[in-house]
Amino acid sequence: MTLRGFLKETDAYRLRRTGRRAMAVLLTGLLLACASCSGDGGSESGNPAGQNGSNGSAPAESEKNGTNDQMNQSGTIQPELTSALPADYTVKADLCNPNASEETKALYSYLREIYGTYILSGQYSSGSFGTEINAIRMATGGIADGKYPAVLGLDLIEYSPSRVERGSSSKAVENAIEWWENGGIVTFCWHWNAPSPYLTGEWYSGFYTDSTNINLKAIMNGEDPEGYRLLNEDIDAIAAELTILRDAGVPVLWRPLHEASGGWFWWGASGPEAYKELYILLYDRLTNEYGLNNLIWVWNGQSSAWYPGDEYADMAGTDIYAAEHNYGSQKKKFEELHKWCPDKMLILSENGVIPDPALCRKEGAMWGLWCTWNGEFTIVSEGVNRLSDKYTESERLKEFYAEPCVLTRDELPEIKDWKAGDLVIRTATPSGGDEEGGSGT
Question: Quick check: is 350 catalytic?
C-alpha cells in the first residue's frame, strides 16, 4: 500500500472527507424543512405525502413497455417521451470553443437533443476504481444483465503536483479512456491540491481552505508572483493529462474549480473576482495554449456572482446533498440555476441522494444528468461491491435506473458519429413488429 493509500484509510481522513458532505446534507435538509414550513415545500421535502416511500408518479405500464419508442444509432430502443416544458430546455447550439473537436461537438449535439426528455444516469468512482459501478451493476441485474451508469465521474486530484511529490498516483485517465471506448461518457472534476509551499495542514487535504494559507487574490493581482508561477505549473501538469485524453479522442465534461462560493476550497476563499480571474486563466491556457479542444466546460460556482461569463461555460452544474431518502426533484435549485444561465444545459453535477426522475419529469426539472458522489453515498464500505441504503435506498436506485426517462450506458448511441436528428421514432405495430417513423424528439 502506498503512503497515500495508508493515509486515506485513516479515521482522520475519512472524517474530513465525509464530514463536509454530511454537513452539506444537514444544511440542505434544514433549508428544505424551512421551505416546507412556509407552505412551499412540495415534493422537494421528500416523498410525496401518503405514498409511504413509493413513487406516486410512476409512468403508465404502456409507457414502460414502449409502445412508441426511439431507436438510437446502436439499435437500442428508447421510450418515446416528450419534454414537460420544451421552452425551458432550449440551449445554446455552439460550444464556447469554436475549435472543438468533432467528437466533442458530437457529444454536445447529443446532449442537447436529449435534454429535457431524458436524464443521463451518472456515478463518481472512488480510489478503488469500479466499486460503485459494479455495485450498481450487480443490483440492477447482475453480471449478465446489470446496468452501467451512462456517465462516469472521475477526479484529477492525484495528478496535482503537491500530491505527486508525496507518492500519489492515479489511473483516472486510463479509466476514462476505457470507459469512453466501452460506450460511456466521462466527466472530470479537479480537487486542486495547493502547491506545497501553501500547505499548512495534512497534505492530502490541501484542496481545503483550512489546510492552506494560499491567498488567491494576492496571486491574481500580482502581489504574489511566485504563487502565480506555481499555479501555472500545476495547470501545466493537468494539461498534460487532459492532452492524453484529447489524443485518445475522448471528450470530457470538464468541471474545474467547483463549489467555489462555499469557501471551503481554497479557490473560493478570496471571493468571486479572484476566482473568476483564475477560472478565465485556466480556460485561456487549456483552450488557446494547449489546444484542448475535447473539453465541454461545466461551470459549478454555486452562486451567480461567481459566474465567469457565457463565453467560458458550456453548461451549468450544481451540487446538492439532500437529506437521507429525500428524493425530491430539486426544482427550486433547477429554476434558480436556469435564471442565472438561461441558455445553458443544467446538470446535477454532484448529488448524494438521487432525485426521483419521475418527479423531475412531472415537475419540469429535467436535469441533463445526475452524478452521485462516491463512497458512502453509494456503497456500504470502500472496496465492497454492495449498495448502501443510507442516502438512496437500493430499491429506489433500481427503480430510478429502470425509469423510461433515464438512460444508462447500454442505451447510448455511438456518440462520436452522432449528428443532430439521429433519433429515429419506432412505433410498435399490433402484431408486435416495429415500424420506423419520423426522426427527432
Answer: yes
Q: Is residue 57 part of a domain?
A: no
Instruction: Check 350, 363, 393, 403 and give the catalytic one.
Output: 350
- In a domain? residue 330: yes
DSSP letters spanning 43-78: GGGSSPTTSTTS-TTPPPHHHHHTSEEEE-TTS-EE
How many domains are contained in the chain? 1
Domain encompassing residue 301: 81-419
| In-domain check, residue 25 | no
Per-residue pLDDT band at 81 (split at 50, 70, 90): low
C-alpha span between 118 and 368 (Å, rounded): 7
* Residue 355: inside a domain: yes
* Per-residue pLDDT tens digits for 38-75: 333 333 333 322 333 333 333 332 232 333 334 443 34
Integer Cα distance of 320 and 355 in angstroms: 10
Catalytic residue of the set 132, 158, 259, 411: 259
- 407's grid cell: 438512460
Edge-to-edge strands of the sheet including 77-79?
77-79, 68-71, 424-428, 434-439
Kind plus residue range of the DSSP H or E element containing 3: helix 3-8
CATH number, domain of 153, equals: 3.20.20.80
pTM tops 0.85, yes or no: no
- Is residue 369 over pLDDT 60? yes
Query: What angle separates helix 272-284 from helix 225-247, to the nearest 10 degrees?
Result: 50
Average pLDDT (109-133) is 92
- pLDDT tens digits, residue range 313-363? 999 999 999 999 999 999 999 999 999 999 999 999 999 999 999 999 999
